[in-house]
Amino acid sequence: MPEKQTAAAWLPDRVTISSLREAAAGCKGCGLWASATQTVFGEGRRHAPLMLVGETPGNDEDLAGRPFVGPAGRLLDRGLADAGIDRDAAYVTNVVKHFKWEPRGKRRLHRRPDAGEIGACLPWLQAEIACIQPRVLVCLGATAAQALLGRAFRVTRRRGELVASPLAPYVLATIHPSAILRKPDEEREQEMERFVADLRIARRILAREPGKTQSA
Predict the structure, then answer these.
(1) Is the pLDDT assigned to residue 3 strictly greater than 50?
(2) 216 in any annotated domain
(3) CA-to-CA separations, 98 to 29, 145, 154, in angstroms, rounded
(4) How many folded domains does the chain comprise?
(5) Among 129, 128, 132, 125, which residue's Cα sits nearest to residue 49?
(6) DSSP string of 42-108?
(7) What's this model's pTM, rounded to 2 decimal places?
(8) Contact between 86 and 214 (Cβ < 8 Å)
(9) Which of 14, 40, 82, 186 has the most beta carbons within 10 angstroms of its beta carbon?
């Protein structure tokens, strides 16, 4: 049986964030590229001490070509600010780099990537982690957590818990900001407070290194 195609075939010989971003723009490692506007690669500080990994770009991200710029991204910005973390000092990315969607009238609705699409795209994320070498890695949601920590990992059981991993000195998982948006209005603020509490764990670790990721 022939091996499944993955993004590995598109990885550049000289691996830097810049070369990865340029190479990823032409990636056809899975079928999602065909219906997406463009590749949405990670962005942020080179060698950022904090790396945040989500699931996949949404409609706004697909159009802008940047991660976490839609409603969930704005909620992430609020959560980081409330936790005392400067987003500009972090690196943000997704497991999957192309928007997966289905039409609903004139709208494009997000669809969760399947295991094959996640596996095909994983070489990009692995290369990003190797380049950034974050001190703290935060998985946002089940897709990111299971892609990096194993399919048996359950965010509902282990959110906010430091997990031993070769990926970074400190690794933890929390919910994706989009999960907060899906909560009923009366539950949203409480869930946001829990999200901020998880992010504060990362901040406390990073505070041990003066001048990094703390808000002024």
Answers:
(1) yes
(2) no
(3) 11, 18, 24
(4) 1
(5) 132
(6) -EE-TT-SEEEEES---HHHHHHTSSS-SHHHHHHHHHHHHHTB-GGGEEEEESS-S--EEEETTEE
(7) 0.94
(8) yes
(9) 40
